[in-house]
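Why aldehyde dehydrogenase (NAD(+))? Reviewers of the renewal asked for a concrete example.
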Amino acid sequence: MGAIIPERRSYVAGKWVEGEEVLAVENPADESHVADVFVTPLSEIERAVTEARDSFDRGVWADMPPGDRARVLHAFLDHVEDSRAALVATMVAEAGQPTAFAERSQLGGGLAVARGAIDLYLSMPHEEANPVPVDELVRGRVALSMRRHEPVGVVTAITPYNGAIVMALQKIVPALMSGNSVILRPSPLTPISSLIFGAAADAAGLPPGVLSVVVEAGAAGAELLTSHPAVDMVSFTGSTTVGRQILAQAAPTVKRVALELGGKSAQIYLDDAVGRAAAGAVAVVAATAGQACVAATRMLVPHDRKEEVVEMVTRAYASLTVGSPTDPATTMGPVISAAQHERCERFVSLAVAHGGRVAHGGGRPSGLERGHYFEPTVLDLPDNDNPAAQEEIFGPVIAVLGYRDLDDAVRIANDSPYGLSGQVYGADTATATALARRLRTGAVNVNTALFSAYAPGGGYKQSGLGRERGPDGIRAFQEVKHLVIGELR
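Here is what the prediction returned.
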């Protein structure tokens, strides 16, 4: 791999900022030291908020014609794309992601979604007539009743370690295109890659105060950004536990909050699609090591095919190559940290203690004594009450469960505090689609998948609030104003 991004400072309101404290970033693949990054002083995070508020209130960006904002943001994205080599090397080093995933899924997918979001915004009406009956308009002497979509204001964007670039792009670009000012706070585990956005803001000529990128080692800055009265909205992707904390921090100032949180998604196989289960199981762990909130980590198959499926998935997982993310032959890299490795171990033990069986994996791969590697693991679970079926593990662990009939499959899939995603596979597309409609989850893939700026994603239940991407993802960063106009009499 080549050299990583050289920047080590935060970007606050058009200026690069150092600090007295540094954050040491670890490479999860070999536990080596990647770099020290300056932690943004709390006073500078406060300044980021103040400058964002000022830039928004003065309209330096919000009042710019949408076509002009689009041109600046395309230049912004051009700079990110031109930094591809260093950015991919950075993602691989700080997140332990295989090179192909960092380059194609994170950067390539993120840029496609960002550019698509610009086009989507430009195609949408942002001022439109209300469907008020004519007799009501006449009685009220109303010439025009309009619904106007305006920017929310100052937006805090908090992103996770597992998708630092793609998650940032699908937050900050729709927010900026909508006319908001944004403060990005990346995960302390993977802060370096997000500094590219400060350089891109400079290169594109984004007005000072419209975008800041702040780095911290703990959570004091995030708490300031989620509670500050000058912040109008918080967009967060991460765990449900932290999402609850953000809701509480935002409540006193009644901020808008958009949350994409945890998941325990089910992939359901009809009897005629069981042969595809191995591929579905590999998709859970390949590249991400299971560290994806949408990962379908519960596999539901007909009871009388369960043993066959467990054997099939075991063979598939045994064939995966676990190792250095810089090796082109690697299928799966490490989990992010020692704490995450311990969490995987703990849930495997809990699964067995509650009647489950480890069909494959369950520990550190042989020959990989350094780095936070965990084997791709297959759990044969007796029921959905097992802790490994109820809790998000966020690692390369899949649970196989049997169902009696389709009603039972729906019951098991919906028996979860989460509802982020789901998958249904069946040769009878009509039956598979009918089943998908019964799942209480924000997205369901039937025999295929789609990740697009035009397709929304988000959660039911404790998997979140609001949507990202799609028209709903644009509207998430806008307020609705009713504008009623009549003649003075």
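Residues 258 and 466 are 5 Å apart (CA to CA). This is the kind of structural detail the renewal will allow us to pursue systematically.
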